[in-house]
Amino acid sequence: MKDGPMTDNELVQSSLKGNMESYRTLMNRYREQAMALALNILANYQDAEDACQEAFLKAFQNLDRFDLERSFKTWFYVLLSRLCLDQIRKKNRFRHFVGRFLSGNMMPAAVPEASNPGLHPQLELKLLGRLRPKERTAIFLWSQEGYSGSEIATVLGCSPKTAHVHLFRARTRLKAILKEEMNESH
Amino acid sequence: MNHTRWVQVLIRFLPFRSSLSARARRHLEQCPECLGRMADIREARASTVSRHDLGEVEDFWPQFVLRLEGPKPGKPIGLGWSWAVGIAGLLALTIVGLFFLSPSPPQEVLSSGVKLRINYVRMYEEPGQAFIFHTQDANSTFVWVEKQKTGEVL
After folding, report:
1. Which ipTM was obtained for this model?
2. Which of B44, B56, B67 sits opposite A139 (nearest CB)?
3. A61-90: per-residue pLDDT in tens?
4. Please, which of A14, A163, A165, A177 could form a disulfide with A153 given CB 3.0 to 4.6 Å?
5. Which of left, alpha, beta for B112 (phi over 0: left; psi -120 to 50: alpha)?
6. B43, B44, B54: residue with CB nearest A32
7. B123-139 pLDDT, tens per residue?
8. Which residue from A31, A48, A131, A118 is spatially nearest to B47, judged by alpha carbons?
9. Domain holding A135: CATH number?
10. Interface test with A, best of B2, B11, B54, B69 (most A CBs within 10 A)
Protein backbone atom coordinates (compact mmCIF):
# COMPACT_ATOMS: atom_id res chain seq x y z
CA MET A 1 0.00 0.00 0.00
CA LYS A 2 1.34 3.39 -0.99
CA ASP A 3 1.85 6.02 1.71
CA GLY A 4 0.77 9.64 1.32
CA PRO A 5 -2.02 11.21 -0.67
CA MET A 6 -2.97 9.77 -4.04
CA THR A 7 -1.84 11.64 -7.14
CA ASP A 8 -4.39 13.32 -9.41
CA ASN A 9 -4.14 10.63 -12.03
CA GLU A 10 -4.57 7.86 -9.45
CA LEU A 11 -7.70 9.64 -8.25
CA VAL A 12 -8.95 9.89 -11.84
CA GLN A 13 -8.38 6.17 -12.38
CA SER A 14 -10.17 5.38 -9.16
CA SER A 15 -13.08 7.66 -10.15
CA LEU A 16 -13.32 5.87 -13.48
CA LYS A 17 -13.73 2.63 -11.58
CA GLY A 18 -16.75 4.14 -9.88
CA ASN A 19 -15.22 5.44 -6.66
CA MET A 20 -17.04 8.73 -6.17
CA GLU A 21 -15.05 9.60 -3.06
CA SER A 22 -11.95 9.85 -5.26
CA TYR A 23 -13.62 12.45 -7.43
CA ARG A 24 -14.74 14.31 -4.33
CA THR A 25 -11.09 14.41 -3.19
CA LEU A 26 -10.11 15.81 -6.59
CA MET A 27 -12.82 18.45 -6.35
CA ASN A 28 -11.70 19.48 -2.89
CA ARG A 29 -8.10 19.59 -4.03
CA TYR A 30 -8.84 22.05 -6.82
CA ARG A 31 -11.95 23.98 -5.77
CA GLU A 32 -10.02 26.98 -4.40
CA GLN A 33 -7.68 27.20 -7.39
CA ALA A 34 -10.65 26.77 -9.72
CA MET A 35 -12.53 29.57 -7.97
CA ALA A 36 -9.48 31.83 -8.18
CA LEU A 37 -9.12 31.22 -11.93
CA ALA A 38 -12.84 31.69 -12.60
CA LEU A 39 -12.96 34.84 -10.47
CA ASN A 40 -10.00 36.31 -12.32
CA ILE A 41 -11.69 35.73 -15.64
CA LEU A 42 -15.29 36.60 -14.73
CA ALA A 43 -14.68 39.14 -11.94
CA ASN A 44 -17.93 38.11 -10.30
CA TYR A 45 -18.14 35.69 -7.39
CA GLN A 46 -21.55 34.20 -8.19
CA ASP A 47 -20.70 33.66 -11.86
CA ALA A 48 -17.38 32.09 -10.85
CA GLU A 49 -19.14 29.64 -8.52
CA ASP A 50 -21.58 28.65 -11.27
CA ALA A 51 -18.75 28.17 -13.75
CA CYS A 52 -16.79 25.98 -11.30
CA GLN A 53 -19.86 23.86 -10.59
CA GLU A 54 -20.43 23.37 -14.30
CA ALA A 55 -16.76 22.62 -14.96
CA PHE A 56 -16.55 19.95 -12.26
CA LEU A 57 -19.66 18.28 -13.66
CA LYS A 58 -18.38 18.46 -17.23
CA ALA A 59 -15.00 17.11 -16.19
CA PHE A 60 -16.65 14.15 -14.48
CA GLN A 61 -18.84 13.42 -17.50
CA ASN A 62 -15.78 13.49 -19.79
CA LEU A 63 -13.34 11.79 -17.44
CA ASP A 64 -13.01 8.78 -19.75
CA ARG A 65 -11.62 11.09 -22.43
CA PHE A 66 -8.87 12.39 -20.14
CA ASP A 67 -5.40 11.31 -21.22
CA LEU A 68 -3.70 9.92 -18.10
CA GLU A 69 -0.32 10.96 -19.48
CA ARG A 70 -1.32 14.60 -19.12
CA SER A 71 -1.90 16.84 -16.11
CA PHE A 72 -5.42 16.72 -14.70
CA LYS A 73 -5.09 20.27 -13.41
CA THR A 74 -4.25 21.68 -16.86
CA TRP A 75 -7.03 19.64 -18.46
CA PHE A 76 -9.49 20.93 -15.89
CA TYR A 77 -8.27 24.50 -16.36
CA VAL A 78 -8.91 24.15 -20.10
CA LEU A 79 -12.53 23.15 -19.41
CA LEU A 80 -13.05 25.87 -16.81
CA SER A 81 -11.47 28.70 -18.77
CA ARG A 82 -13.49 27.78 -21.88
CA LEU A 83 -16.70 27.83 -19.85
CA CYS A 84 -15.78 31.22 -18.39
CA LEU A 85 -14.83 32.70 -21.76
CA ASP A 86 -18.06 31.33 -23.28
CA GLN A 87 -20.02 32.97 -20.48
CA ILE A 88 -18.36 36.32 -21.22
CA ARG A 89 -19.08 35.89 -24.94
CA LYS A 90 -22.75 35.18 -24.22
CA LYS A 91 -22.97 38.21 -21.94
CA ASN A 92 -21.33 40.39 -24.57
CA ARG A 93 -23.78 39.21 -27.22
CA PHE A 94 -26.67 39.99 -24.88
CA ARG A 95 -25.17 43.38 -24.09
CA HIS A 96 -24.84 44.23 -27.77
CA PHE A 97 -28.44 43.14 -28.32
CA VAL A 98 -29.71 45.19 -25.38
CA GLY A 99 -27.41 48.05 -26.39
CA ARG A 100 -29.45 48.59 -29.53
CA PHE A 101 -32.44 49.47 -27.41
CA LEU A 102 -30.74 51.34 -24.61
CA SER A 103 -28.85 54.58 -24.67
CA GLY A 104 -25.10 54.56 -24.08
CA ASN A 105 -25.50 55.74 -20.49
CA MET A 106 -27.62 52.79 -19.56
CA MET A 107 -25.24 50.22 -21.04
CA PRO A 108 -23.76 47.84 -18.49
CA ALA A 109 -20.01 48.04 -17.84
CA ALA A 110 -17.48 45.67 -19.45
CA VAL A 111 -17.06 43.88 -16.15
CA PRO A 112 -20.13 44.05 -13.94
CA GLU A 113 -19.58 45.71 -10.63
CA ALA A 114 -21.03 42.94 -8.54
CA SER A 115 -20.54 42.16 -4.89
CA ASN A 116 -17.94 39.48 -4.38
CA PRO A 117 -18.62 37.87 -1.01
CA GLY A 118 -15.74 35.93 0.47
CA LEU A 119 -13.14 37.92 -1.41
CA HIS A 120 -10.40 39.80 0.40
CA PRO A 121 -11.85 43.33 0.73
CA GLN A 122 -8.60 45.05 -0.31
CA LEU A 123 -8.41 43.18 -3.58
CA GLU A 124 -9.04 45.37 -6.58
CA LEU A 125 -11.12 43.55 -9.15
CA LYS A 126 -11.62 46.70 -11.18
CA LEU A 127 -7.96 46.47 -12.12
CA LEU A 128 -8.60 43.12 -13.75
CA GLY A 129 -11.66 44.53 -15.47
CA ARG A 130 -9.37 46.73 -17.52
CA LEU A 131 -7.65 43.71 -19.05
CA ARG A 132 -9.18 41.46 -21.69
CA PRO A 133 -10.46 38.04 -20.54
CA LYS A 134 -7.68 36.08 -22.23
CA GLU A 135 -5.09 38.48 -20.84
CA ARG A 136 -6.56 38.00 -17.35
CA THR A 137 -6.36 34.23 -17.79
CA ALA A 138 -2.78 34.40 -19.02
CA ILE A 139 -1.56 36.66 -16.24
CA PHE A 140 -3.27 34.57 -13.56
CA LEU A 141 -1.74 31.33 -14.82
CA TRP A 142 1.67 32.93 -15.15
CA SER A 143 1.82 34.73 -11.83
CA GLN A 144 -0.22 32.50 -9.55
CA GLU A 145 0.34 29.07 -11.03
CA GLY A 146 3.80 29.53 -12.52
CA TYR A 147 2.62 28.31 -15.94
CA SER A 148 4.95 28.66 -18.92
CA GLY A 149 3.92 30.13 -22.25
CA SER A 150 3.20 26.72 -23.77
CA GLU A 151 1.10 25.66 -20.77
CA ILE A 152 -0.89 28.90 -21.01
CA ALA A 153 -1.32 28.15 -24.72
CA THR A 154 -2.77 24.74 -23.87
CA VAL A 155 -5.32 26.28 -21.50
CA LEU A 156 -6.27 29.06 -23.92
CA GLY A 157 -6.32 26.75 -26.93
CA CYS A 158 -3.92 28.91 -28.95
CA SER A 159 -0.33 28.75 -30.14
CA PRO A 160 2.48 29.45 -27.63
CA LYS A 161 3.32 32.57 -29.62
CA THR A 162 -0.21 33.93 -29.19
CA ALA A 163 -0.12 33.03 -25.49
CA HIS A 164 3.09 35.03 -25.13
CA VAL A 165 1.39 37.97 -26.85
CA HIS A 166 -1.56 37.77 -24.40
CA LEU A 167 0.84 37.64 -21.49
CA PHE A 168 3.02 40.46 -22.77
CA ARG A 169 0.00 42.70 -23.37
CA ALA A 170 -1.40 41.89 -19.93
CA ARG A 171 1.86 42.73 -18.21
CA THR A 172 2.29 45.95 -20.17
CA ARG A 173 -1.29 47.02 -19.54
CA LEU A 174 -1.07 46.16 -15.86
CA LYS A 175 2.12 48.18 -15.49
CA ALA A 176 0.51 51.16 -17.21
CA ILE A 177 -2.60 50.93 -15.00
CA LEU A 178 -0.55 50.67 -11.82
CA LYS A 179 1.61 53.62 -12.90
CA GLU A 180 -1.48 55.64 -13.71
CA GLU A 181 -3.01 54.85 -10.34
CA MET A 182 0.21 55.69 -8.57
CA ASN A 183 0.33 59.08 -10.31
CA GLU A 184 -3.29 59.74 -9.37
CA SER A 185 -2.69 58.96 -5.71
CA HIS A 186 0.30 61.40 -5.55
CA MET B 1 14.63 35.56 -21.40
CA ASN B 2 17.47 33.13 -22.36
CA HIS B 3 19.32 34.22 -19.31
CA THR B 4 16.57 33.19 -16.85
CA ARG B 5 16.02 29.96 -18.79
CA TRP B 6 19.68 29.10 -18.15
CA VAL B 7 19.14 29.54 -14.41
CA GLN B 8 15.99 27.41 -14.56
CA VAL B 9 17.82 24.62 -16.41
CA LEU B 10 20.64 24.79 -13.88
CA ILE B 11 18.24 24.42 -10.97
CA ARG B 12 16.29 21.65 -12.66
CA PHE B 13 18.99 19.34 -13.93
CA LEU B 14 22.04 19.70 -11.72
CA PRO B 15 22.15 17.97 -8.35
CA PHE B 16 20.86 20.57 -5.97
CA ARG B 17 23.73 20.91 -3.51
CA SER B 18 23.83 23.64 -0.91
CA SER B 19 26.65 25.49 -2.67
CA LEU B 20 24.67 25.50 -5.88
CA SER B 21 21.61 26.65 -3.98
CA ALA B 22 23.58 29.53 -2.49
CA ARG B 23 24.94 30.47 -5.92
CA ALA B 24 21.50 30.42 -7.47
CA ARG B 25 20.11 32.54 -4.66
CA ARG B 26 22.97 35.01 -4.93
CA HIS B 27 22.39 35.25 -8.62
CA LEU B 28 18.67 35.84 -8.19
CA GLU B 29 19.35 38.54 -5.60
CA GLN B 30 21.91 40.39 -7.69
CA CYS B 31 20.98 39.91 -11.33
CA PRO B 32 18.94 42.93 -12.50
CA GLU B 33 17.13 40.85 -15.15
CA CYS B 34 16.04 38.20 -12.66
CA LEU B 35 15.15 40.84 -10.08
CA GLY B 36 13.02 42.66 -12.65
CA ARG B 37 11.27 39.46 -13.62
CA MET B 38 10.56 38.59 -9.99
CA ALA B 39 9.26 42.10 -9.38
CA ASP B 40 6.96 41.65 -12.39
CA ILE B 41 5.63 38.39 -10.97
CA ARG B 42 5.10 39.97 -7.54
CA GLU B 43 3.25 42.89 -9.14
CA ALA B 44 1.04 40.56 -11.17
CA ARG B 45 0.39 38.35 -8.16
CA ALA B 46 -0.74 41.37 -6.17
CA SER B 47 -3.12 42.40 -8.95
CA THR B 48 -4.76 39.02 -9.45
CA VAL B 49 -6.98 37.03 -7.14
CA SER B 50 -5.16 34.13 -5.56
CA ARG B 51 -6.74 31.20 -3.73
CA HIS B 52 -5.51 32.76 -0.47
CA ASP B 53 -7.56 35.90 -1.13
CA LEU B 54 -10.73 33.87 -1.12
CA GLY B 55 -12.65 33.22 2.03
CA GLU B 56 -14.39 29.91 2.59
CA VAL B 57 -15.04 28.51 -0.88
CA GLU B 58 -18.33 26.69 -1.32
CA ASP B 59 -18.27 22.92 -1.27
CA PHE B 60 -19.41 22.01 -4.77
CA TRP B 61 -20.05 18.37 -3.87
CA PRO B 62 -23.72 18.48 -2.69
CA GLN B 63 -24.85 20.39 -5.78
CA PHE B 64 -22.69 18.17 -7.97
CA VAL B 65 -24.38 15.01 -6.62
CA LEU B 66 -27.82 16.57 -7.08
CA ARG B 67 -27.09 17.45 -10.69
CA LEU B 68 -25.67 14.00 -11.40
CA GLU B 69 -28.76 12.30 -10.04
CA GLY B 70 -31.50 14.59 -11.30
CA PRO B 71 -32.30 16.73 -14.30
CA LYS B 72 -30.65 20.05 -14.83
CA PRO B 73 -32.18 22.67 -12.51
CA GLY B 74 -34.16 25.34 -14.30
CA LYS B 75 -34.92 23.13 -17.31
CA PRO B 76 -38.43 21.72 -17.42
CA ILE B 77 -38.52 17.93 -17.56
CA GLY B 78 -38.84 16.43 -21.03
CA LEU B 79 -39.85 19.70 -22.61
CA GLY B 80 -37.69 20.01 -25.65
CA TRP B 81 -39.22 18.92 -28.91
CA SER B 82 -42.06 17.05 -27.19
CA TRP B 83 -44.49 19.94 -27.58
CA ALA B 84 -43.86 20.04 -31.33
CA VAL B 85 -44.25 16.25 -31.61
CA GLY B 86 -47.50 16.50 -29.62
CA ILE B 87 -48.93 19.19 -31.88
CA ALA B 88 -47.92 17.25 -35.03
CA GLY B 89 -49.59 14.10 -33.67
CA LEU B 90 -52.77 15.98 -32.85
CA LEU B 91 -52.84 17.49 -36.34
CA ALA B 92 -52.40 14.08 -37.95
CA LEU B 93 -55.23 12.67 -35.82
CA THR B 94 -57.51 15.54 -36.85
CA ILE B 95 -56.82 14.98 -40.56
CA VAL B 96 -57.45 11.23 -40.28
CA GLY B 97 -60.62 11.90 -38.27
CA LEU B 98 -61.93 14.38 -40.84
CA PHE B 99 -61.27 11.92 -43.65
CA PHE B 100 -63.13 9.04 -42.05
CA LEU B 101 -65.84 10.89 -40.16
CA SER B 102 -66.83 13.45 -42.81
CA PRO B 103 -70.57 13.13 -43.62
CA SER B 104 -71.25 11.10 -46.76
CA PRO B 105 -74.28 11.88 -49.06
CA PRO B 106 -77.63 10.50 -47.89
CA GLN B 107 -78.43 6.91 -48.89
CA GLU B 108 -81.43 7.86 -51.12
CA VAL B 109 -79.20 10.18 -53.16
CA LEU B 110 -76.57 7.51 -53.63
CA SER B 111 -79.17 4.88 -54.66
CA SER B 112 -81.09 7.21 -57.05
CA GLY B 113 -78.38 7.07 -59.68
CA VAL B 114 -77.94 10.88 -59.62
CA LYS B 115 -74.29 11.52 -59.31
CA LEU B 116 -74.18 15.30 -59.61
CA ARG B 117 -76.86 17.94 -59.67
CA ILE B 118 -76.28 21.69 -59.71
CA ASN B 119 -79.28 23.79 -58.87
CA TYR B 120 -77.89 27.23 -58.99
CA VAL B 121 -74.47 28.84 -59.56
CA ARG B 122 -73.36 32.34 -58.82
CA MET B 123 -70.23 33.80 -60.37
CA TYR B 124 -68.77 37.16 -59.37
CA GLU B 125 -71.93 37.86 -57.40
CA GLU B 126 -74.05 37.25 -60.51
CA PRO B 127 -75.93 34.18 -61.69
CA GLY B 128 -73.66 31.93 -63.74
CA GLN B 129 -74.27 29.15 -66.26
CA ALA B 130 -73.09 25.69 -65.36
CA PHE B 131 -72.32 22.81 -67.74
CA ILE B 132 -71.70 19.29 -66.59
CA PHE B 133 -69.51 17.05 -68.72
CA HIS B 134 -69.58 13.39 -67.91
CA THR B 135 -66.80 11.38 -69.55
CA GLN B 136 -67.51 8.10 -71.22
CA ASP B 137 -65.58 5.97 -68.82
CA ALA B 138 -67.78 7.51 -66.13
CA ASN B 139 -64.88 8.01 -63.80
CA SER B 140 -64.60 11.77 -64.21
CA THR B 141 -67.05 14.63 -64.23
CA PHE B 142 -66.18 18.22 -65.18
CA VAL B 143 -68.20 21.21 -64.15
CA TRP B 144 -67.84 24.28 -66.38
CA VAL B 145 -69.23 27.53 -65.14
CA GLU B 146 -69.55 30.56 -67.38
CA LYS B 147 -70.48 34.11 -66.64
CA GLN B 148 -73.91 34.79 -68.03
CA LYS B 149 -73.83 36.74 -71.31
CA THR B 150 -75.79 40.00 -71.47
CA GLY B 151 -79.38 39.54 -72.57
CA GLU B 152 -79.25 35.81 -71.94
CA VAL B 153 -81.77 34.42 -69.49
CA LEU B 154 -81.04 31.38 -67.49
Report:
1. 0.76
2. B44
3. 999 999 999 999 999 999 999 999 999 988
4. A163
5. alpha
6. B54
7. 777 888 888 777 766 66
8. A131
9. 1.10.10.10
10. B54
